[in-house]
Amino acid sequence: ETVDHKYVYDFAEGNKDLKDLLGGKGANLAEMTNLGLPVPPGFIITTEACKAYLATGEEPAGLAGQIATHLEALEREMGRRLGDPDDPLLVSVRSGAKFSMPGMMETVLNVGLNDRSVVGLSAQAGGNDRFAWDSYRRLIQMFGKTVCEVPGEEFEHALDEAKRAKGTTNDLDLDADDLRGLVDAYKKIFVKHTGREFPQEPREQLDLAIRAVFESWNAERAVVYRRQERIPADLGTAVNVVSMVFGNLGPDSGTGVAFTRDPGSGAQGIYGDYLANAQGEDVVAGIRNTVPLQELEQLDKKSYDELLAFMARLEGHYKDLCDIEFTIERGKLWMLQTRVGKRTAAAAFVIAGQLVDEGLIDLDEALHRVNGAQLAQLMFPRFRLDHEFQPVAKGIGASPGAASGKVVFTSARAVELAAEGESVILVRRETNPDDLNGMIAAQGILTSRGGKTSHAAVVARGMGKTCVSGADEIDVNVPAKRFTVAGQTVNEGDIVSIDGTTGKVYLGEVPVMPSEVVQYFEGSLEPEHVDNPLVRAVHRIMTHADGKRRLAVRTNADTGADAARARRFGAQGIGLCRTEHMFLGDRRELVERLILARTDDERDSSLAALLPLQRDDFVEIFREMDGLPVTVRLIDPPLHEFLPPLEQLAVNVAVAQERGEDVAKEEALLAAVRRMHEENPMLGLRGVRLGLVIPGLFAMQVRAIAEAAVAVTRAGAVAKPEIMVPLVGAVQELETVRAEAEKIIAEVVGDSGVEVLIGTMIEVPRAALTAGQIAEAAQFFSFGTNDLTQMAWGFSRDDVEGAFFWRYLELGIFGISPFESIDRDGVGRLVRIAAEEGRAARPELKLGVCGEHGGDPDSVHFFHEVGLDYVSCSPFRVPVARLEAGRAAV
Ligand code: PEP
Ligand code: MG
């Protein structure tokens, strides 16, 4: 006989490090229990049980028995039996995955109530019939909706009906008889939709609720949320079965949420919302407006003081911002949940800095507490506000940023307009999980109800999307597609601006200004910001990252201005200067002449005209990058990109011929364009192939680079040119180019002291696979992961993202576009092979990467792991790469 797998854990058996198995909520309930905090007793059904259920559609063997054993223990501890008619134990059944998925999965409260135990509950509550029947109707409503898929509106209609009959709009005006009547109405709705009576057997209620939580892992909104948040789809959820405590037993009861620091700014202090005489779900749903947590001090000083003490304890224990859900039941404080709290990007930096000051963490740990995505967020611009712009409403700054756009009132409309390229602000009374797609599509979210912990606030923060919640001066009328505020009406399509930091709402489009973090990086900080806590924290953490990182960070830049900016952002050189960008504009004609040249003389004269122009480009860049290496890539794209499009040219020529004009020149051009036309230009005549086919082209570029370096050096600066050959697939290509280049360099450089390196891009799979041979001819490699991804997967980089990647993402073929974040297993393997074999052949070989991946946080970690010397990315991503390279090294 086999021993049953352990699927159920008491809170006392778990701890905070068991999140994989017990989910985040369960692991933290266990941790609080073991810290001796007042957690209502309960047990956790593991994610493994969920996964087994989802795989087979049946509860795994042994689960039912283990639940029975743990339930008995819970009943003994509480001195009450589940659903007992006289003195019932009631439990909540709550989802809790490894990663928080706010509101995405199911919860059922008050399990154990039935026609008989409702009487016992009333007795427990001191003869409070109203409370007991209200709890029962909540159970039928939640159970019906989440377990049996009864349409929620039916229950809401019945509730509205009961209130109308009573002549009120307030739930609290319904008395016990009204609620008893409502229970009858709810039961009828239940029977109508399910074909069965509402289950009276407590254990059956429990089992069905557990099953519903398991299944909610695969609810559509949960699937969408996971995809957006890049949470793996196969983790499953744990289920927490917890003894009920009640925040709705009267004015000495209530429920709330608390943060140990401000999750918006990171400021120290007491932050949270409290709602007297209510259940926890009321706060999260934002159904009634809460009061600031500080007011609890007046309402119940004992609980308030106790809560503050627990918060300090939790923060000291977790050494981080904690968020907490609590309930007060008739003056007794219960801790219902804690976790390391979500926070804005600014708060992440500020809090990490504070915790270092407080000696709770060291700077290495502070580096782990922030990330490049957050830094990128802080580099967004904010509103520029002057007197013309007066806010029309102020809600809660739930997620920072500055967003302007057309007002929409439904998720569907948001998706529609966003698809047309419009920037939209989704305005709702409150959001719920069904609004997820609209929230993704919107530039920002504005709600009239709900606090910092409402659905809108939590989800928007997670997405890094601007959100103002609880702007209660706004009266939202969804069916009429308008809202009114301060005596004005705002219709769908009107523009509003929302500030997710201050919570202010403006009519019209407010202009924006740069972030102080960017100003800090640029060294152009306004004096009033020099001492700003965010800037100080960023400075401190970036300095530490720079001290720790092994990867250098260069930039991709091909103008002096970009080079200068990147240098201010901390770039340690240029990793990719794309020279083809220098062949556009006025110079296009010269290039056209080069391509159309019929004789050596014609060609040489075009090249001679291009030479000084190129040289000036390089002089400017070398000057800006004085003392730092500059990798200049010889021209890469197919030449026909410099000619007019074939079809248009053909039409022009035909029209001109029609008119009898002299079209000899145009005809020659057309013939050239035809001759050069390629079906697959990305796999055609580009890169090194071009250099080997058009005599003198690479030579001109090499000469321009060398002459510029000599000129800059003669002027007293230090130029460190590195000439890079693109699209090499065989060492022979590189050897041919190199032999010619070295001659020119030797001739130009003379005794100037300038040293020029020659290396290659590794962006064709064959180059990666023959890197040992190629390294014999290369002083450095730079991985072109854009082309390497394109050619390794056979995905056209210009087409596939819009064409079918959405489907691939939906199917989970990959979690993120391989053009955005390096595919470690495939493309990454090519990088690894080339790095190893290249270094084996030439130990001093310099290795870098200059594809888009150089600025992607995950990819930076990968490049650190495979031992590259540097990453190169766009100027704006340089700080992100510096930070992530530091994080990878600690
Ligand atoms: C690359 O292919 O990764 C690269 C940097 O070159 P480009 O993007 O110019 O093709
Ligand atoms: Mg390339």
Structure report:
The chain is of the alpha/beta class and 890 residues long. Among the domains are: 254-343, D-amino Acid Aminotransferase, Chain A, domain 1 (2-Layer Sandwich), CATH 3.30.470.20; 380-513, Glucose Oxidase, domain 1, CATH 3.50.30; 549-638 and 678-889, Alpha-Beta Barrel (TIM Barrel), CATH 3.20.20.60. The protein is 46% helix and 17% strand. It is built from 35 helices and 33 strands. The strands form seven sheets. Strands 14-24-23-16-17-18-19-15 form an eight-stranded mixed sheet. An eight-stranded parallel β-barrel has the order 26-27-28-29-30-31-32-33, surrounded by six helices. Strand 17, helix 17 and strand 18 form a beta-alpha-beta unit. Helix 13 crosses helix 20. The longest helix has 25 residues, at 600-624. The radius of gyration is 33 Å and the shape is elongated. Bound molecules: phosphoenolpyruvate and magnesium ion. Residues 65-289, 294-346 form the Pyruvate phosphate dikinase AMP/ATP-binding domain. It catalyses: pyruvate + phosphate + ATP = phosphoenolpyruvate + AMP + diphosphate + H(+).
